[in-house]
Amino acid sequence: MSSEWISRLWLLQLAFTMAVLAVLLLRRPCRRWLGAERSFQLWMLPPLAMLVSQLPHAITHTAAPPTLVHIVATAGGAFPAMPQATMSSDWRTAVVAAWLAGMVAVGLLGWFVQSRYWHRLRNATPASGPSRWPVLFAAEPELGPALVGAWRPRIILPADFKTRYDECEQALILAHEEAHARRRDGLWSLCAVVVVAVCWPHTLAWLGWRLFRLDQELACDAAVMRDHHGLRRRYAQAMLKTLSAASALPVGCAWSPRHPLTERIAMLKEKPSLTRHRIGGYVVAFCASTLAGMVYAATPAVPEGKGVAPNHYGLSIDVAYNGGAPETHFAQCLKPGQYVTVNGSATGVAAWNGRFTVVPAEGGQLEVQGDLSGGTLEEPVHPKVRGQPGQTATIEVGEVHHGDVKSNHSIRLDVTARLGC
């Protein structure tokens, strides 16, 4: 399981890296030629690439490796197969645990910052107006303007909103926050927090977070100016009067010092034509489909035996006594967790009983686990053998003397596990 988690996390990181590098390469040219709104839409590429990297591929058929026989045999009893790569399994488990701990830590940090902001709004008062979204007046002048929340966003205005801004500036600030709400920027911010939490060890995750918030504000400014292009100077004056929050709001959009005002004011002069805006939609869609195809093609296909656990396993058991040829043959179709019972006896070998099941193992292997008692065994044994689907493994218990067949008093089980029946 640890190996599978490591593999999936590694694919996530590769897909995320490829997507973020593509965004960093394209965002400025796209903003210059197609507008800030289309440039911001490029940030859908990282979560899209990460999602595509986890999509299942068709199962590929690989050539069966040479038959590998595991012999679990000594005179007087059977020993379980040697544990495979215990040290390796331990470090994989430690890496997965550290990764999950980091994700939880980032999530808790975001929750704490968000909760602290909401706590400061406990004395906020609702405002009346024509806005489609709830508008609250904060009790402090340092809070707002901002949009808070993802599913049910609220517009937060500072306590001195009506005295700090004139009527025209008030309308523009409210239009800015409504544009955030209309564009679902709170939901975009939540998605960005999730991506950062998943990729928290990656330097590009934190750089991308900062640039994402900047592009988000530039896109919102562009949306406002598309409807109020003649009020660029008044809009810039409103920006200069707005106080910056101490830190970026995780789920929401606050005026933060991470949004350089000089760059935002300079972008107010840009007004891409409607034709460029429409072309930009096709360009972004092309980039998204191309990157998704590249990530999917680069993701390795699942070899046969490493896909989703089947509904049934096939188990064949050939039983031989005293070093001779197999005398008894069992074949059973098992559900996951189901056991098959076998038993028998022979000359020199008292009656014995056993039961076996098949479980998936690392690397696409199948493990046959058994319980044996009776025969020449003084006490029950619990052998385990592991191999690729379709390979035969051997369990041999009892008194084994390979040089003297007459002295053999043993039970040999040739077990073969397969995917499906």
UniProtKB/TrEMBL annotation:
<feature type="transmembrane region" description="Helical">
    <location>
        <begin position="187"/>
        <end position="209"/>
    </location>
</feature>
<dbReference type="InterPro" id="IPR052173">
    <property type="entry name" value="Beta-lactam_resp_regulator"/>
</dbReference>
<keyword id="KW-0472">Membrane</keyword>
<feature type="transmembrane region" description="Helical">
    <location>
        <begin position="39"/>
        <end position="59"/>
    </location>
</feature>
<dbReference type="InterPro" id="IPR008756">
    <property type="entry name" value="Peptidase_M56"/>
</dbReference>
<keyword id="KW-1133">Transmembrane helix</keyword>
<dbReference type="Pfam" id="PF05569">
    <property type="entry name" value="Peptidase_M56"/>
</dbReference>
<protein>
    <submittedName>
        <fullName>Peptidase M56</fullName>
    </submittedName>
</protein>
<feature type="transmembrane region" description="Helical">
    <location>
        <begin position="6"/>
        <end position="27"/>
    </location>
</feature>
<feature type="domain" description="Peptidase M56">
    <location>
        <begin position="9"/>
        <end position="268"/>
    </location>
</feature>
<feature type="transmembrane region" description="Helical">
    <location>
        <begin position="91"/>
        <end position="113"/>
    </location>
</feature>
<keyword id="KW-0812">Transmembrane</keyword>
